[in-house]
Design brief:
With 109 residues, this protein is an all-alpha fold. Helices cover 59% and strands 0% of the residues. It is elongated, with a radius of gyration of 18 Å.
Length: 109
């Protein structure tokens, strides 16, 4: 993940949530392969899309002075709404019906 969307750590958190959900039904070591395949399938499209946008942002941020800057600035004018899909994403909703990570467990009394 290149750094131009600031999503490296965020992707890790999303990965952890989806991985926990994917492994929630595993009862034996023999169940790991299908669970890990599910996890990979669930994450592949989103992480590839974030990477593509990150690379695109790198290209846009490093343009030399010239006519391309006007086109770039037009893209940047609407960037927030263009990238809302990154920041409004709910990784727990990606694998509904399984365990959800909701925070620290309460301590026994």
């Amino acid at each position: 993940m290149v750094p131009h969307q600031g999503q490296g750590a965020n992707q890790t958190v999303e990965d952890a949530i989806v991985l926990v959900d994917s492994l929630a039904d595993v009862h034996a070591a023999t169940d790991l392969t299908p669970a890990l395949q599910r996890y990979a399938a669930l994450r592949r499209e989103r992480t590839a899309r974030v990477q593509r946008w990150s690379r695109r942002a790198a290209d846009l941020m490093h343009l030399p002075a010239g006519p391309e800057l006007r086109a770039r600035d037009a893209v940047f004018a609407d960037l927030y709404s263009e990238l809302a899909w990154i920041h409004s994403y709910d990784a727990g909703a990606e694998h509904p019906g399984h365990a959800r990570v909701t925070g620290a467990a309460s301590a026994p009394t």
